[in-house]
Amino acid sequence: MDPSGVFFTNYAGDRSLIRTRKQWAFLIAFLVLFVTLPWWASDRWVSIGYTTFITAVAVIGLQICTGYAGQINLGQSAFMGVGAYGAALAMGTGWDALAALVIGGMGAATFGVLFGLTASRIKGFYLALTTIAAQALFHFLVLNLPQSWLGGAGGLHLESTSVFGISLNNDRAIYWFSLAILIAMTMGAFGIVRSRHGRSFEAVRDDDVAAGMMGIPVAATKARAFLVSSFYAGVAGGLWVVALRHVSVEQFTLFNAIWMIAMMIVGGLGSIVGALIGTAMIQLAREGVTSLGPSFVQWVPALGQDFVFAAMNVLLGAVIILFLLFEPKGLMYRIEITKKAFRIWPFPH
Amino acid sequence: MIDFLNYVINGFLQGQIYALLALGFMVIYRASKVFNFAQGELMMLGAYAVWTLTIGANIPTWLAIPLAFVCAIVYGWLIERLFFERLVGESVFSMVMVTIGLVILIRGIVMVVWGAADRSFPVLLPPAPFIVGDMIFPSSLVIGAFITLVTTIGMSWFFNRTRAGLTLTAVAEEPNTAISLGISVKRAVTLAWMMGSVIATAGAIVLLSGRSITVQTADIALASLPVALLAGLESIGGLILAGAIVGIVQVLVAAYIDPAIGGSASSIVPFVFMLLILLVRPTGLFGWQHVERV
């Protein structure tokens, strides 16, 4: 919703995503902040930055599948793994990192759409639960295909990666590369959700029987949601390989997929910006746990390291549940109403 | 031939143990339409409760197991009281999301209370096999399968024949109508979570007897998912057949196909089998066909 007083006199203005000068100012300020971060922040922040960006790409994909199309997807971590292996294989044979990301994304999308296609027969929770099979299949395939293909349990290792001839072997380069990809993927997501496909996702989420009667091909729409979502996961997986130059099966567990769902909930279902905010919040909280844990142990040595880490996990789990109970629409909703309250102040309505 | 027969019997018995784990999912689903992703965590909590009572506190087994069930009832009640009571009337989607939050929360709690170390679970069921002719029955599996059969038939009777069970079904189908008919939704959901926790504990005892437990033990419950989906999420009685099918197929694949391909195809056979069955029968073998209205 635009604030009152914002009117457009041409269609280009009405179609634009960034609608007011203030929004432009904030957007540019944020971009400058993130682009320049490696110059003024410590190396630790740089690595936190790119892990958050990479996770955010996967969570945006999940947001499209779950938040927009209403399909609970527990295979996101496995799809990410497929993308990671695809990208690793491509880069191993000398492909450019960017091309490898696309290859990884398409590999993951192919794997993901297999589960989406079952939507033509399977509905509701049965569909959500079959995505758990993606996890089992992924583990099985990686561990049982010939050792020379995917490296079995040891995983794949890459010597170096580069994009357009620029080497991606230091943290700063990885940071900027993943930031660029995240920006591109975010713009793509905004495009998708306000296109015809995005509208049909929302229609299917709200009531799939009614959507079908309106002429929306329900099963195809669900399959498409899985396709987009797993493409995003695949790209995130590819970035993961670029960052770590190593890929193995235990990096992609069902528990990771559950964390991604948690990030989406905290951010707010059905909002791309929500996915970004949720990812940032949870990642920062987890990083906080990792860095504050040891100093907390120093204050209260009786507790011990393990206890503090575990206690922080309890805290995070509780935060997620409390969000669902008391703020089920996520942080994004809270931000929206706060913004609205500021706009109309001092009037209540 | 006798090998084949042995495999089939073993598969049947193992399948019944998966059916017991699947029963935990199903009881909560039947009573509140919530698919509980934290069922494995409930099982793990039950396992740790049994461990604490038997090995930690050194209570004799005959007393420890009922006490563990009492614990299960208490934390089942607590979970409902703390989280699900507030969600009565909310969408099923948000309740399912809460169970996903519970996954992280319960794992954290277990790490806080018991730590990350491996613990050896007490041997509660006799491990020695008994042999009839040329056929070998591992007694722990036989007892486990017997427990499953009794519980499943009991639960099936409870949900389909008793007043309380039908009340639970009514709550799951139409919570608002149930409220207006004077049914206490809260009580029904509490009962569901208590039963779910107790069955999870029973599953832990049968499955883990003589093995070791860690936080990762919780993942085992998801292996029982194909059984639940194959039976159809509403059909408790169907679990016995679905468990038998999945177990027998898995054991036969492990015996005849795994050596040939040199891998563990048996670990994904249940999932592939489940997908194929669901493509033919989207609601499982015995699930209910719902007529949808807009």
Pair with the biggest interface: A-B, 47 and 49 residues
CATH structural class of chain A? Mainly Alpha
Q: What are the segments of chain B in which pLDDT stays under 50 over at least 5 consecutive residues?
A: none
- How many angstroms does the end-to-end distance of chain B come to? 55 Å
* Percent helix of chain B: over 70%
Report the C-alpha radius of gyration of chain B, rounded. 19 Å
Number of strands of chain B: 4
Q: Would you give an account of this structure?
A:
The complex is a heterodimer of chains A (349) and B (294). Chain A is mainly alpha-helical. Helix content of chain A is 74%, strand content 2%. Chain A has a single domain, classed as ABC transporter involved in vitamin B12 uptake, BtuC (Orthogonal Bundle), CATH 1.10.3470. Chain A contains 15 helices and four strands. In chain A, a hairpin with a 2-residue loop joins β2 (162-163) and β3. The radius of gyration of chain A is 21 Å and the shape is globular. The two termini of chain A are 15 Å apart. The mean pLDDT of chain A is 86. Chain B has 294 residues and is mainly alpha-helical. Chain B has twelve helices and four strands; from the N terminus they run ααααβββααααβαααα. At the A-B interface, α6, α10, α12 and α14 of A face α4 and α12 of B.
